[in-house]
Amino acid sequence: MIHNIFNEDLLTRCTEPKFKGQHMELAPPPMIINEEEEYKIEEVRKHQKQGKEMQYLVHWKGYGDEYNQWIAETGLPHAREAIEDYWTRCLSRNL
User: Fold this and answer.
1) How many domains does the chain have?
2) DSSP code string of 27-95
3) What gap in Å lies between CA 79 and CA 74, rounded to an integer?
4) Which end of the chain lies in a sparser environment, N or C, as judged by fewer CB atoms within 10 Å?
């Protein structure tokens, strides 16, 4: 049997945030659609071709950039509007 031992003198008591910027908002819970969790896409940020398939870098609403994910277009059946908005932004930058 393994026992973990830690010197409690090395611990620091947790304190409440003092400034507004220190408080982290909780991410919104996922929606349940057809008994599956679905998260809301805030925006599509980039695209890349992976083999024959297009992938999009997705930024989730209420989550930080560290949670961004590359997802194949086939894995985004409910994100048509976010993908169209992304391509509209790309086209307007190239004009």
Assistant:
1) 1
2) PPPPEEETTEEE--EEEEEEEEEETTEEEEEEEETTS-GGG-EEEEGGG-TT-HHHHHHHHHHHHHHT-
3) 10
4) N
